[in-house]
Amino acid sequence: MAAAAMAASTNSSSSSLVTFVFGDSLTEVGNNNFLQYSLARSDYPWYGIDYDGGQSTGRFTNGRTIGDIISAKLGIPSPPPYLSLSTNDDALLKGVNYASGGAGILNDTGIQRLSFDDQINCFQKTKEIIKAKIGQEAANKHCNNAMYFVGIGSNDYVNNYLQPFLADGQQYTHDEFMELMISTLDQQLSRLYQLGARKLIFHGLGPLGCIPSQRVKSKTGQCLKRVNEWILEFNSKVKKLILSLNGRLPSAKFLFADTYPDVFDLINNATHYGFKVSNTSCCNVDTTIGGLCLPNSKLCKNRKDYVFWDAFHPSDAANEVLAEKLFSSLFSAAAAPPPKPHS
């Protein structure tokens, strides 16, 4: 129902569609470039090698993010990073990307990044500016009609709970940790609603136990089963939370996008999609020091053969397959053709 309503609203006026994006490095488009001491950044060579112009932009992949590809499918430009805009910029009216590499649901996840709470604070400032520009009533309507994409939670596991030296892994059982995340997320999504969000899509987490940075912890290089079980449990709790929010908040059309099966299928049946390697990354990374693709790293010969670009992030080619699937499932009323294997 919500998906059909969203598809209808995007079809009617896609040129005027405004999107606000919140999340982590999977959707970041360059906010961390503006944070002087951030270690989670990708503004150096190899990142962006397959992006327009071949330069790094602060996207954590060799090309486009899933958000870039979905924006193009909706016929709108990919929203710019919030920190690149001046305080009073008219571009704030057209949609903004607040995503920040290293960010999590919890404020103690990551350092030198915009946490999800920080991102919501930035959106609150954006709304104040929109209000000053077009008046309160128009600003409320503008924010109600916009689409909100939220994809966050991976770092709460990968860079927090699953790190042996960080407090949360020792302080909480997994059940307690998950309850903390869900109750925090409940407050955060409720706050976005208070600020005007009505049409919101929350991207569930993918099988984190299968990303290269986790596989290296397995003696045989297999996916970490327990991590994937935790992620499935987290996704199912977020799905319940979204249903509960829709019940509690008048005219909320929040949607849970379950990307786990698609990512899992892409990794396990990579050849079906035209890929050759899904257990390690195209960029030869050192997982002991973070797993990002450094300027002195060696690249694979054919970047389109690899599902993963670095130890954490999908390649441009993989993002294309995943964006196709996500778009078809979200906007089924405007059904897109099924994803073709890339050449």
Automatic annotation (TrEMBL):
The record, for Gene3D superfamilies, names: SGNH hydrolase
InterPro entries attached here? GDSL, GDSL_esterase/lipase, SGNH_hydro_sf, SGNH_plant_lipase-like
- Domain of life, per the record? Eukaryota
Q: What are the entry keywords? A: Hydrolase, Lipid degradation, Lipid metabolism, Secreted, Signal
Could you confirm whether the keyword Lipid metabolism appears in this record?
yes
Where in or outside the cell it occurs: the entry states: Secreted
Q: Which family does it belong to?
A: Belongs to the 'GDSL' lipolytic enzyme family.
The protein here is known as GDSL esterase/lipase
What species is given as this protein's source? Xanthoceras sorbifolium
